[in-house]
Amino acid sequence: MQKRADLPKVDHSAIRVGQGSIVLTLLIAFILDLWPLVAAVAVINLLGAFVPSLSLWRLLYQQVLKPSGLIKPHVIPDHPEPHRFAQGFGGVLLVLGALLLALGFAVGGWIPVWIVILLATLNLVVGFCLGCFTYYQLNRLGVPGFDRSPVERGR
């Protein structure tokens, strides 16, 4: 485990805004049966995972919600890579869902979308990120590219 003092800082409020935005947008997509909206969230997630400075969710937080005082920063020592991995994996699931929905496979398409909704909700409500957990397990197994180890939590 890496000591907290050695870590970069991550604003978990920005992460929570992203999770809430994903859940809300995907629920709207489901209710209105709009696969293009699922595709849009997939693109937003993938862009945010690979080019974090262009993340629409982060920009919403930094440019609107944080300056207005609606949401306060919660910056803590943490690795950003596991969070980006989780966001990217969610994006891949949403690409799959959007493709299946576009091809007319409603049940098969909504399943990966609902997986993302449930996992984002789990992280938003309970604070458990399955994508981050997976990233750290891959790190423990020595998989190349997963070079960040879990953060030592204060006692």
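(ticket continues) Second input and output from the same batch:
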Amino acid sequence: MSTPRSATSARQPRARVLAIGALVLVLAACGSNLDPEDVAGTNGSANGVDGTVAIDGTIEGGTAVDPGTGSVPGSGTVPGAGTDPGAPVAPGDTGGGTGGTGGGTEPGEAATDPAVEAPSSASCEGLKNQTGITDSEIVIGNSSDISGPVPGLFATAQDATTAFTAYFNASVPGGICGRKLRLVNYDSRTDASGDQEQYTKACKEVFAMVGSVSAFDSGGAKTAQSCGLPDLRGGAVTQVRNDCTTCFGVQAVNTSFFENAVPDYVVKTVGSAAAKKAAFFYSDAGAASENAQAQVRAMKKRGMDFPIVQGIATSEFNYASYVSAMKSEGIEVVFFTTAFNFSVRMRQAMQQQGYEPKLYLRDPTDYNPDFVEQGGSAVEGTTVYTNFAPFEENNAEIQLYKSWLGQVKPGTDPLFFGVFSWSAARLFVELAAKLGGKLTRESLIAETRKVKDWTANDMHAPQPVGSKGTGECWRFIKLTGGRWVPAGGTKYSCNGLSSTS
């Protein structure tokens, strides 16, 4: 995030923007189905933004990004897998690896990324040029919310896809059957009609969509399906998008189920008696109330109980009464489904009243540098359940994502949705390389339906992408001394699912 953290005056407006917009992130991350009208009512009108995009040059509808055919932005290094991350690029190198520009090396030349097997000349035989595929390139697209009432809402998804494109072109000189990747970025404008408009263009311009995330993703669902456009998303936010037969969320979510690993961790950590004294708060907007009740029902089946289940208006600034109610009820465990800055507000109210539950448990939206910075000592002890490897750990794929994100967008923090957009791009190239000469939109969709337990080289917990189920595995981290450290070990807990009905 490019805003200097030392500049308080710059940080405060940004915090207000996130206070509005991060609600959308939370509802999506927790497997919720968004009601576009309710979210638009919370954020203000989502309309009134034109179709032009200004990202690395302005064109109508989408912005072409080809990081592999120019020098890697912001650095003279090419940190590819199997190479020295600090090795300088040779003078005159184009940033596209030894393949240079255009079509790269001949099909069959070995990839330098050990996770991507370069198709042989024989396996590439028969590959035909088609929408988004030419003699020299395979064009992919990403449509995420960049403009609108919450500027940059899902910029992290687009940044991650851009970073992977740059990485792949530099690290796999031969590309896929001699073709480099070219990414076209679209702006869905935090609006259902914007999502639909961009997918209408994408149907004619790109081979597949990769890593997209939009708060109003129901808009383009019918369009993607009707033109047979493969849509490997960072995640599907609405049920309409999840129902699209050509669309797949790499972070797989089915809101009919909830992961047992979360309540099981609570019972194991605080004991069965304390687990029956839990509170579940949520920001009262959109489908949040329905989803909160559903999750509570699922967790009760695993031995928990919730004397307090309550919505909090996003306009509420004084959380003292909620803390007082928890103290009166003897609450030992607190859940809060909300944006990270509202979570900060709750923790500050707890600190002011000298109240500290045995467990304050949050989804990955609190796993954010701004949460730690804004909350200070008040947020110490917060526990987060996460379905991807923490950024602090030496996970090879996470470090690759961080490295290339720093190349294409210097100063940008890696974040939750960026992980799954990078993963979506990784899945696309592995399936495309596997198909080789048989690569078509139809064959890519068919192969995606077969994907089970996708982890993107252990970047995240297994995801049932093809079946559109729910990933059941989570692990836990705790904020201790201003740093996130493992809580309960570093392995994922995969304890099955409970129905939310």
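Agent notes: The radius of gyration is 22 Å. Confidence is low (pLDDT under 50) at residues 1-61, 66-108. Closing as not reproducible unless the customer responds.
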